[in-house]
Amino acid sequence: MSLRPVLTMVPAWLWLLCLSTPQTLPKAQSADLHVEVPENYGGNFPLYLTKLPLPREVAEGQVVLSGGPGMAAEGPFAVDPESGFLLVTKALDREQQAEYQLQVTLETEDGHVLWGPQPVLVRVKDENDQVPHFSQAIYRARLSKGTRPGTPFLFLEASDGDEPDTVNSDLRFHILNQAPAQPSPDMFQLEPRLGVLALSPKGSISLDHALEGSYQLLVQVKDMGDQASGHQATATVDVSVVENTWVPLETIHLTENLKVPYPHHMAQVHWSGGDVLYHLESQPPGPFHVDAEGKLYVTGELDREAQTEYLLQVRAQNFRREDYAEPLELHVVVLDENDNAPVCPPRGPPISIPELSPPGLSNTCELTITVTDINDHAPEFTTSQIGPVSLSEDVEPGTLVATLTATDADLEPAFTLMDFAVEAGNTEGTFGLEWEPNSGHVQLRLQKNLSYEAAPSHEVVVVVRSVEELVGPGPGPRATATVTVLVERVIPPPKLDQESYEASVPVSTPAGFLLLTIQASDPMSRTLRFSLVNDSEGWLCIEEVSGEVRTAQSLQGAQAGDMYTVLVEARDADEPRLSTSASLVIHFLKAPPSPALTLAPMPSSHLCTPRQDYGVVVSGPSKDSDLAGGHGPYSFALGPNPTVQRDWRLQPLNGSHAYLTLALHWVEPGEHIIPVVVSHDARMWQLPVRVIVCRCNTEGQCMRKVGRMKGMPTKLSAVGVLVGTLAAIGFFLILIFTHLALARKKDLDQPADSMPLKDTV
Ligand SMILES: *[C@@H]1O[C@H](CO)[C@@H](O)[C@H](O)[C@H]1NC(C)=O
Ligand SMILES: *[C@@H]1O[C@H](CO)[C@@H](O)[C@H](O)[C@H]1NC(C)=O
Ligand SMILES: *[C@@H]1O[C@H](CO)[C@@H](O)[C@H](O)[C@H]1NC(C)=O
C-alpha cells in the first residue's frame, strides 16, 4: 500500500483540526477513539481522519485495521502505515450508515499483538441532503360550522430523512395560500412546529356566514427550523365546510326498573366535522355510555329512589382530546313506577251508621262527574292552501271552484257552528260562498264571468269563524284558507271572409297566375298563416302570409268543365293550435279560342341591381286598345318561364296596374324582356315588359350612360392627346440631353483630349 499524502492532505488536515483532535486520547489504548467524518464529503480522497496513537518505540510491527466487534470488515477505511493516520477512501452517506466501529492493532508478522486493540468509533456527520415529505399529497378534512378556533381538526404529518433532533430535520409548517380568500384570507392557522390545522379566531367568526363549500389550502413543510434556507415540500388540504349538527338535546324520561335488554339506546349525537371522538360524563356518575357513532345508551336499570335525575355532558373531541365545541347537555329524568294506589280526598257528606250495628257492613258509592264543554276551540280549515284551480274564461257563473272543509274541536254542537266569509281577493264580487249549517263544508262558486284581460289569476281568502263567542285564545292561522284560481284565456278560432271560395281559370293558364286572395274576416285584428291541405295535383300554391292563391305550374291534365277542390287551412299566427279551413273550388274553363296575343312591348324602364326597394309599374292594355275592350279588372301573372319566375316578382296594384320588382338580390345587368300574362274574363294577353337592369350607384340609382359632353375626349382624340403628350415628353428629353452634353463638353474642353460627343446626341 503506497499512498502519497503530500498533495491531498492539506484540506483534510484543516478538517481534522476543526473536528476531531480534542477527542483523541493518545496514551490510553483501551479508551474509544471518536472520529467524525462529514457526510457527502466533496473534496479529494483519501481523507485523513486522525493520527492513531501508535507507540513510537515498537516500529517493527504492522498496523492491522478491522471492523469492530460485530462488524465484518473495515469498510471504506484504512491506515497509512508510514504516518499512522486513519483515512477514509470514499464519501459516506449517513442515511445508509451513521456509525462505523473499527479496531486497530499492531501485530508481528506471525500474528502476535504488540499493541491494541484500539477501538475507533467513526461517526458520519449529517449534511442536510434529505428533502422533507408530507405523508399525503392531498389531505381532506371536514370542518363543521361552530368549531372552536384553535382546536385542531387536521394533523399534518411530514418526515425528513436527515439526522433526528438536528436542524436538518427540524421541520416547520406554513400555509402558503388559501382559496377562496373569502370571507377572510386567513381563515385557518397552522401550528408551525406540529403541523396541526385549526380555525383562526377570524375564521371562526366568518365561517358561520360563509356558505357551505370548500377551501383549498396549499401547505408547505420546510427543514432547517426557522432559518430561511432549507428543503421544502408542499401538499394540498381540502377543507369542506359542513353544517353544524351539534344541536341541544331534549330531556329524556326513563322509567325506573325498566325491563329491556341493556345497553338500551336512548339518544344520538352527531358531530358533522371529521375524525371525532365522543366522550360522555354523567353527573352524578350513572350507567350511561356513548359509542364511537355518538349513540347514547343506558347500560342498566335506573332506580328513582337512588337518583331522580342525571345531567350528562357529551363532548366531541379531536385526537388530542380537545373539545371541538361546547359539550352538549342532556337531562335524564327517572320516572316513578305506578306502584302506589291513589288516595281519595277526605270529602263528601258524612255517612252515619247506627251504634252497635253489625261489623263486616260495606257500600260502594258511585260519583258522576260531568265535564262541561266551553267554546275554547276556534274552527280551522283542514287545508290552508287550495289550488291553483284552472278555470277557462268561458265557464258560466255558478260553476263550483273549490270545496273547503273546516273542523271544530269543541264537543257541544252549538259551539261547532261555523260562519264563513271571503276576506280578500273578491273586490268585484266574482266569487261567492255557499254552505249548509253544521256541515263543515263550504263551496266557493263563481258568480260573474271571468276575464283573462282583467285578472289572469285570483287569490281568494276564505275565513271561518265560530258562530258562538269564543273563549280563550283567538283563532289561529288555520282560520283562513287561500284558494288560487288561474284564468285560462279563450281565443275564438279564426274565421275567413267566406265560407268557401270559387275561381274559374282556363286550362291554358300559365304558372304564377293569381286566382284569388283568401283572408280573415277581420284581417286587422289577427294574423293568419295559410296553407293548402290536399292539393294532390300540385297545381296551386298559396302565399303563406297574404293568402294569395296562384297557379303553381301549367294546369297540365286539367279538363275544361272539370272542378278541382282543395282545402285551404288558416292558422292563427300567435296561437297555432287555432285553425279553420275552407274549401276552394276551381272551375276549369276552355282555353280561349285565340292564342294568347302579344301586345307591343311597354316602354323600357330602369331598375338597378343589387335590388333596391322600387320597381316598375306595369299597366294593363290601354283603354283605347281594341283588344282590351277597355274593361277591367285584369289579373297579372309572370310568364311560365322558370328563370323569369325566379328572378322577378309581380304584385297587383289595382285592377289595371301591377308592380314589377326584382325577386333576387342580384340580377345580371342588361336588357330583360319579361313576359307578363294579363287576363280578364278568360281572355289572355302576353305583355312583354322591357326592363334595363343596371348596376346601382352609391345613391341606389341606376348608373346611366351619360351622353358625350362637350370637350370630353372621344376615343380618337384620346389617342391624339396621348401621341401629342409622348411627342412633347420626347422633345423635352432631347432638350435636357443636349443641354447636359454641352455642359459636359465645356468641362472636357479643358484637358488635352476631347471626345466627339456631338455624334451621340
Ligand atoms: C257572460 O258571458 C256570456 C258568454 O260567455 C255572455 O253571454 C253573458 O252576457 C256574460 N255576462 C255578463 C254579465 O257579462
Ligand atoms: C280535399 O279535401 C276536400 C274535403 O275533404 C275534398 O272535398 C276534396 O275532394 C279533396 N281534394 C283533393 C284533390 O283530394
Ligand atoms: C292604379 O294604380 C296606378 C299606379 O299607382 C294609378 O296610376 C292608377 O290611377 C290606378 N287606377 C285606379 C283605377 O285606381
Automatic annotation (TrEMBL):
InterPro entries: Cadherin (IPR039808), Cadherin-like_dom (IPR002126), Cadherin-like_sf (IPR015919), Cadherin_CS (IPR020894). Gene3D superfamilies: Cadherins. The keyword Transmembrane applies. Residues 64-134, 135-381, 383-496, 497-603 form the Cadherin domain. It holds the Pfam family Cadherin. The chain crosses the membrane at residues 718-742. The keyword Transmembrane applies. Keywords: Calcium, Membrane, Repeat, Signal, Transmembrane, Transmembrane helix. It comes from the Eukaryota. One of its GO terms (molecular function) is calcium ion binding. GO terms for cellular component: adherens junction; catenin complex. Its main location: membrane. Residues 1-30 form the signal peptide. It is found in: Membrane. GO terms for biological process: adherens junction organization; calcium-dependent cell-cell adhesion via plasma membrane cell adhesion molecules; cell migration; cell morphogenesis; cell-cell adhesion mediated by cadherin; cell-cell junction assembly; homophilic cell adhesion via plasma membrane adhesion molecules. SUPFAM superfamilies: Cadherin-like. PANTHER family: CADHERIN-16 ISOFORM X3, CADHERIN-23. This is Cadherin-16. It comes from Tupaia chinensis (Chinese tree shrew).
